[in-house]
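Figure 6 in text form: structure in, sequence out.
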């Protein structure tokens, strides 16, 4: 007992500063996130699941919509049934008027600074300086109740408040009607989320129509009314409901939309309808309902007749449709768990041959992979629509870019870009169309989670369709792999925001809301939690919040609750800060044992009043080398200068020549970066062997700057490498190896892979 007490007394002398220091608050990076998380409650409980009194509203729509193709205008009337499932009285309702950001005097048009730039196109010059500004936005003709009595309403930019004759009581319903119209924008010219593309060669337009009707805002326990204005980046917060939608278009148009088509026989030709029915049973390959030759023939028809397509969708949060006489249309049945789903693609001839080859394949892969990691896809179909410069999602339907050259050739960059955007946008059916997060406030909750599963799907697509990645080791995913986020995270901090930021307030939305959270989840799965624990927790979150409104805390808490892994340190660092990963090797020391302390240790002991002659037998560690250590230099016997240690081992019956390690090393690791991460190290030895060790992240809990580890081995250490497989998004590889070595740029090699 005396020897142990004396040892710790000496240690205490070395570590204790005699001066009185100021106290401080808890800044440990492993402290719990109580200061950041919203408190659990009866709506969102502490496990991350819906609470016992969780509620959400239901909004049903019946609509009649007509497209004026000649004037690019959309007319509509809707009947809205609002069900108040909240415990609150609601004296008014808030609706979103997203098209109002296209009014020529919309504040959203002036939200950013501008400069003329140094390059541009003639068409952009005409658009910016010559043409009259496009005047879009909703024109509300009337708002009336069920008995056609006018209702007071007030429009504030992209929000409309409808004042009710009396408040809707908890459990009550209110039915009202709205009539509107608006001018449809050219989405290619101004990069809108919906609109039309004009084809001057044949005079046609292809329409992708969304945000086309006044839609109810979300009312919940978190925000009350989520009526944050639509400025363009923050997407949508919407309630679930049933939709019955009749859409009238020229009779030579082909259409796809959210929901099931109820009158296919009425709107299709006899041959088209026959193929339509055949496609319902085709699990091997797509059935072409309208082929390229037929679509091309329609381009000059410009029918003056009209057809009304009727759709019904149950329990969806939104509605979108695409229509044109230019569309080629294909459908294939796919078995997803216990359900048959139709994988659908529509595209003009300008999309071929690329779209006919890959679009429906990408849809099918998405449905299968996402269902494996979340829940069985519950809707009857998923549609991929070709639209220039687009990448946008709605329930059961999405618009996607990727166009070959006019001669039909295309590069790998175009091919993989198209496949990836289809996977991403179809994947949005899961996040946020079903796991219905608040996109207006938390862009990463749909974009980041979706991009993560997109990465998993892309890798499986490459395995399922090896012909698509000929010449590559794997599918060249642009986002998800840790090394691909390094350039962003290592960038200028003046232009980087934490993931937990509103989409309107970040400089680089793609890296912030898509790539960084996707990378974080990939690191969680592969490096920190392990696939089994992560996959179970991720699926638990998805299934808990199907058809509900989760918050960030619900996701964070569920991932911990379902895995028994404390991740507060991870959420804090990756999601609430802009800290970076930088972990490296600071020093490597070789040491031996002696009965006599080195000069520095002797001076320190004497300075604190210890008489070495009166101390009991102690063994001292003597550093033989420092960070300038020459790995090829021969080392002396590590016990030759310690008779005390040799005698003790002999007394214990330990054979010094066979049972005692021949080499002892102290490796000091440094962490200049702010993020704590597991320490992944590969040790290399003179006999050609290697050893991989992963030290838990808790290694940093008591020293955020540096930690040391001891290696006792019969083999001579000749190399140390931190994060050898680049698993942690380390922004600085210069300090990752001992001895130091040059590391080629990951970005350059990746660019070469996808160059085309």
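Output sequence:
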């Amino acid at each position: 007992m005396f020897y142990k007490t004396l040892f710790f007394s000496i240690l205490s002398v070395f570590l204790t500063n005699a001066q009185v220091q100021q106290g401080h608050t808890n800044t440990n990076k492993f402290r719990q996130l109580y200061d950041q998380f919203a408190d659990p409650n009866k709506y969102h409980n502490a496990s991350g699941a819906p609470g016992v009194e969780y509620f959400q509203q239901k909004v049903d729509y019946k609509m009649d919509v007509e497209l004026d193709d000649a004037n690019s205008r959309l007319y509509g009337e809707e009947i809205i049934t609002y069900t108040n499932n909240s415990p609150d009285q609601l004296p008014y309702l808030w609706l979103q008027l997203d098209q109002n950001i296209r009014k020529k005097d919309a504040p959203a048009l002036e939200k950013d600074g501008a400069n003329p730039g140094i390059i541009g196109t003639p068409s952009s010059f005409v658009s910016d300086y010559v043409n009259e500004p496009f005047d879009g936005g909703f024109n509300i003709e009337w708002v009336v109740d069920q008995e056609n009595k006018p209702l007071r309403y007030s429009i504030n930019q992209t929000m409309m408040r409808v004042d009710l004759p009396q408040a809707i009581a908890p459990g009550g319903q209110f039915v009202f009607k709205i009539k509107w119209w608006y001018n449809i924008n050219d989405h290619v010219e101004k990069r809108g989320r919906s609109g039309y593309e004009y084809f001057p060669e044949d005079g046609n337009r292809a329409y992708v129509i969304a945000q086309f009707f006044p839609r109810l805002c979300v009312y919940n326990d978190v925000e009350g009314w989520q009526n944050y204005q639509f400025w363009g980046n923050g997407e949508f917060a919407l309630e679930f409901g049933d939709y019955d939608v009749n859409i009238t278009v020229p009779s030579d148009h082909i259409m796809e939309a959210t929901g099931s088509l109820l009158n296919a026989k009425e709107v299709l030709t006899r041959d088209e309808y026959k193929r339509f029915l055949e496609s319902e049973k085709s699990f091997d390959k797509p059935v072409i309902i309208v082929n390229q030759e037929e679509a091309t023939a329609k381009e000059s028809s410009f029918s003056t007749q009209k057809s009304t397509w009727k759709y019904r969708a149950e329990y969806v949060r939104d509605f979108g449709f695409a229509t044109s006489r230019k569309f080629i249309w294909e459908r294939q049945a796919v078995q997803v768990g216990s359900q048959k789903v139709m994988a659908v693609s529509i595209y003009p001839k300008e999309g071929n041959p690329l779209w006919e080859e890959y679009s429906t394949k990408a849809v099918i892969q998405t449905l299968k992979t996402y269902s494996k990691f979340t829940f069985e896809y519950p809707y009857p179909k998923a549609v991929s629509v070709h639209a220039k410069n687009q990448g946008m999602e709605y329930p059961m339907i999405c618009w996607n870019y990727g166009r070959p050259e006019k001669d039909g050739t295309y590069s790998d960059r175009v091919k993989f870009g198209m496949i990836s955007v289809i996977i991403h946008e179809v994947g949005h059916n899961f996040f946020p169309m079903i796991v219905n997060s608040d996109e207006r406030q938390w862009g990463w909750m749909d974009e980041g989670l979706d991009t993560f599963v997109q990465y998993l799907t892309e890798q499986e697509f490459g395995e399922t369709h090896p012909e698509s990645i000929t010449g590559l080791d794997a599918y060249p995913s642009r986002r998800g792999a840790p090394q691909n986020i390094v350039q962003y995270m290592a960038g200028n901090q003046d232009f980087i925001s934490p993931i937990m930021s509103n989409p309107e307030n970040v400089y680089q939305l793609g890296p912030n809301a898509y790539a960084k959270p996707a990378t974080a989840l990939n690191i969680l799965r592969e490096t920190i939690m392990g696939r089994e624990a992560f996959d179970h927790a991720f699926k638990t979150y998805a299934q808990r919040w199907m058809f509900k409104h989760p918050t960030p805390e619900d996701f964070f808490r569920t991932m911990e609750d379902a895995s028994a892994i404390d991740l507060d340190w991870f959420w804090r660092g990756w999601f609430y800060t802009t800290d970076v990963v930088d972990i490296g090797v600071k020093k490597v020391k070789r040491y031996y044992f002696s009965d006599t302390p080195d000069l520095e240790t002797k001076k320190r002991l004497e300075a604190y009043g210890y008489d070495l002659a009166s101390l009991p037998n102690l063994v001292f560690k003597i550093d033989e080398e420092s960070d300038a250590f020459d790995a090829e230099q021969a080392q002396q016997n590590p016990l030759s200068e310690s008779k005390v240690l040799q005698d003790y081992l002999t007394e214990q019956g330990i054979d010094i020549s066979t049972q005692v390690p021949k080499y002892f090393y102290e490796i000091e690791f440094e962490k200049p970066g702010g993020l704590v991460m597991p320490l992944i190290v590969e040790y290399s030895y003179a006999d050609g062997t290697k050893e991989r060790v992963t030290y838990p992240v808790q290694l940093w809990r008591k020293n955020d700057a540096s930690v040391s580890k001891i290696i006792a081995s019969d083999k001579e250490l000749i190399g140390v490498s931190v994060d050898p497989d680049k698993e942690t998004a380390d922004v600085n590889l210069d300090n990752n190896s001992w001895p130091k070595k040059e590391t080629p740029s990951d970005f350059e090699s990746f660019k070469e892979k996808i160059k085309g």
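Caption detail: DSSP finds 18 helices and 31 strands in the chain.
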